[in-house]
Please model this.
Amino acid sequence: MKIAIIGGGPAGLYAAILLKKQRPQAEITVHERNRADDTFGFGVVFSDATLDNFEKYDPPSYRRITQEFAYWDDIAVHFRGTVHRVGGNGFCGCSRRMLLLILQERARELGVTLQFETDIDDESRFADADLVVLADGINSRFRDKYVDHFQPEVDLRSNKFAWMGSTRPLDAFTFIFQETEWGPFIAHAYQYEAGRSTWIFETDAETFARAGLEGLSERQSADRMAEIFGWFLDGHPLLTNRSMWRNFPMIRSRRWVKGNMVLLGDAKATAHFSIGSGTKLAMEDAIALSEAMAQAPTVDAALQKYEHGRREEVEKTQHAADVSLVWFEHVDRFWDFDPVQFAFGVMTRAKAITYDNLMLRAPEFVREVDKAFAKQVRAKGFDVDLDKPVAPMFQPLKLREMEVANRAVVSPMCMYSAKEGMPGDFHLVHYGSRAIGGAGLLFTEMTCVGRDARITPGCAGLWNDEQQAAWTRIVDFVHANSAAKICLQLGHAGRKGATRLMWEGMDRPLEQGGWDTVSASPIPYFPDSQVPREMDRAAMDRVKAEFVAATERGTACGFDMLELHCAHGYLLASFISPLTNTRTDGYGGTLANRLRYPLEVFAAMRAAWPAHKPMSVRISATDWAEGGITGDDAVAIARAFGEAGVDLIDVSTGQTVRDAQPVYGRMFQTPFSEQVRNEARVATMCVGNITTSDQVNTILAAGRADLVALGRPHLVDPSFTLRAAAWYGAEVACPPQYLPGKEQIFRNSVRDRQDFDDLKIKGKPKTRAELKTEATKPLAAE
Model:
């Protein structure tokens, strides 16, 4: 077999090593345009988990790499005159040049041919090759040459960054957040060998311009950074090596394979430097390719197996990198945070590290986080314990005169189980059991303000006396048997009305028994959906009156809080999104105009709702579709409702148009809550694939939301909050009939938590820093 590899970086060299080990008789040649010892940048970083992989697939190169690495366990966050160190991270740094030399030497040992100063721009010279590996880096000529086939998407990020080095020794992966007269600068720094450390400087475009960095030489830029970070550099110089300021390109390729050619490493996909995974991804690509080549019967089958098997892992890493880089791009959102909370946000920004995870490896730091959170709660007037504070999930919150005992919320979820809008016994049991389960607040499903406001025939409503009596029964039960507060969510389906029950075809039009629908514009949801009637002034007044009437009924029912549904493509959302509002009157066009009617409805409801009770608004913070609502729009929407008197923004996303392309994942909507909360300066509730109490604590402690709503977890476990309280040792209300069960789970959880923590600690492999320390200890005297 003949294999040509274009690109002699870590991806190409490691692929050559692994493929040669598999096929000793294969003719493998690496073609690199630079000289053997040329390299750009300074150090690379790997986690212990990545090194475990290297040890498994090629022990000789692994041993050489680990001999040359600098090890550290701590991450240090410097912010506003403070430093917080968090241990247990297990990272290693190595000179990029040394890594390349190690891989070159290992490749030669195995019989790989290395050709340097060989510029390849035409693959036809490898017509006799069985496999051509395109590992020619972030500026891949071949990806660009066959752009129509590979279909790369290049997202050039907004922040400017420059990669430099220093002689400053470091004993931790170091983040420095520095305020200047021009704006914030960030340094990402780590040691990679004795006397050498990598320094990546980053700032937003506006600060970059104000600081006069445009057009400066490498040396001038380094001098400017030395001025800004000189207090920490302590007289050590900054070194340059093609250290020009640039924007990071996030690259994703729709295809990785063309014939017998395959993209590897940065040529196919990039991951932002803030999670240190670029070289890791490249070398793990090589592992995946070699595995596929070993398992598949032909090269073609192997390449298909590689692409399909590897893509998910690459996209997960890229998603984490995306979340991380956005945090750094918008660091100004958190600049006024308490330094402890800020440091916690740095640690948990990419979602891989969580509250519980940090509690295991850095318990003192998490105790500081808990105290800082408790201080914020005390500043709001609550007499909470500052010496031994409970976890953030179990801290109280006040909205107007309504106090919730904890931050866990039962999300609004349509049950599609009402008859002619009437909630029945199912609803009593559904809401009652979840209230008894300990949540601080529960929301009703979207309760419709009129018969023709329903989504489906099974939707609950509040437009007549019988429905009001049924809801009153539910509210009275919640208040009599739990400490939970209950919020009435009111909405109108708009163009998404007259559809089937969820389990019969969600959003699909009814075949019979439907009703007329209305919307901001006459645009059907599906091509075969009913075309809604565009609302005129009379229709707008009629629907507004229905919202007010339902609000008054909600007051009579005794609800503690009221929410207006302006999300998910329903009636009021259809006014807000430009994808569903094509009006040319005063209610269309600009965002301010599109908000006019929802704000009119909100104002009328606010006037009818008791002044001492809070109101919230649910919004779709993005339509997940080109030309639709964006996160920045969501901030403007939240500010508008804030000025109108809203107390909380319930931040959801999407469901506006059928061709939306949401990016799912754990806590996938939380970044929008974070943006709205910290830019619009309004309390938020987040929702969306949040499944554990650990995630709840992580979100709250990092300042990404004030309340956390969970839907599906509460469907399968009405006592979700009670179980979490037992796990964290927090108090939660419980009816006397259930106290024996509560007492048992609280007793058992103390032991269960200790056993769980012990297993986690025992099961965690020692970091290479620990192993190195043990290896250098003198033997005990006999």
Summary: The CA atoms of residues 291 and 306 lie 8 Å apart. The two ends are 58 Å apart (CA to CA).
